[in-house]
Automatic annotation (TrEMBL):
Homodimer. This is Phytanoyl-CoA dioxygenase. Its cofactor is Fe cation. The keyword tRNA processing does not apply. Keywords: Dioxygenase, Iron, Metal-binding, Oxidoreductase. Pfam families: PhyH. Signal peptide: none annotated. It comes from Penicillium daleae. The keyword DNA-binding does not apply. One of its GO terms (molecular function) is dioxygenase activity. Belongs to the PhyH family.
Length: 316
């Protein structure tokens, strides 16, 4: 594994294309997007989530410092978070390109195509206060039991689409600096072997202005850093998308009330997990699970038609 010539964190503007960001992610494993989310949207999200942060208590284990407060289930608390962060076009575009899978299988003498589109995995707001110690460097893909093999370059085609389970999108709700504990990560560690241990010396800091975002493959080593300031809160809106056939990290079906989910547009309902991973994964009453939100969804009929190859789906 080549560890020389490590690129520092690639930085793009919010006008960058999905293809540009995917290309940078394949090389470095993480990309900063400047001005990803508007200041007005962040103002509203902060109003929506602040009560949840204020009600949280200190973590008593070792994964989070005692000075960190969290609040989850953003779809329950903030339609603005759902619209402006979860559904951010670059986050969704990159996730669709890197996490969608398709395959075909025999049904008698016919080839049938099935597509599994990504879904939301979790939403967590982190408020990390002064005095917080550094989180251990870790890979978030261990929640899905991932054990990676070392590669020099991110594989193309189906092998590439199988490599990563999830992608994270960390939006800065306040300025994130090295001093106040910005997320540090090891560029290119998404290409490493499972056995290779993290090394603090190789870390880069995702320093961000309010509204910037850090997009990261879940196989990258990273962690929140120490907040050594006297009075600065680091506020991060953290969201992950995962593959359509893996279990969501946050149990969104239980965390978000059906009545709240019903009010969202269909595209947000589908991303939240109310959709089938083709051919048959996730049904309710033998039908697309959106039947719980929309009585018009039919039952007792094929849930998908897999006759044509979906050519629009680009494997990474
Ligand atoms: O605090 C951060 O910036 C990252 C948090 C994190 O990586 C985690 O909780 O898994
Ligand atoms: Fe993490």
């Amino acid at each position: 594994m080549a560890t020389n010539a490590i690129p520092s964190v690639p930085v793009v503007d919010a006008t960058a294309s999905v293809n540009e960001i995917v290309a940078a992610l394949k090389v470095a494993g993480g990309v900063i997007i400047r001005n990803a989310v508007s200041q007005e949207a962040l103002d509203q999200v902060e109003i929506d989530v602040r009560p949840g942060l204020e009600n949280d208590t200190a973590w008593s284990g070792s994964f989070f410092p005692a000075q960190t407060r969290r609040t989850t289930a953003a779809l329950q608390k903030s339609p603005t978070y759902a619209r402006e962060i979860v559904m951010h076009p670059l986050f969704q575009g990159v996730s669709n390109q890197m996490l969608t899978e398709k395959h075909w299988f025999w049904a008698g003498d016919q080839k049938q195509w099935a597509v599994s589109r990504p879904q939301l995995s979790n939403t967590i707001v982190f408020s990390i206060g002064p005095g917080a110690t550094a989180q251990p460097l870790h890979r978030d893909d261990s929640i899905h039991q991932r054990v990676s093999k070392a590669v020099d370059v991110y594989p193309e085609g189906r092998e590439g689409s199988l490599r990563d389970s999830s992608i994270g999108f960390f939006v800065a709700g306040k300025k994130a600096t090295k001093a106040n504990g910005a997320t540090r990560f090891i560029p290119r560690s998404h290409l490493w072997d499972h056995d290779a241990p993290p090394n603090e010396d190789l870390c880069e800091f995702a320093e961000m202005e309010r509204g910037d975002a850090f997009l990261m493959m879940a196989s990258c080593f990273h962690g929140g850093s120490a907040n050594t300031t006297a009075d600065e809160e680091r506020l991060i809106f953290s969201t992950f998308m995962t593959k359509g056939y893996l279990r969501q990290e946050e149990n969104i079906y239980l965390a978000v009330d059906l009545d709240v989910m019903k009010k969202y547009p269909v595209e947000i309902q589908k991303v939240a997990g109310y959709s089938l991973s083709e051919p048959f994964l996730g049904w309710v009453d033998s039908a697309d699970p959106r039947k719980l939100l929309d009585k018009e969804i039919p039952t007792n009929t094929d849930m998908w038609t897999g006759i044509e190859e979906p050519k629009d789906i680009i494997a990474v």
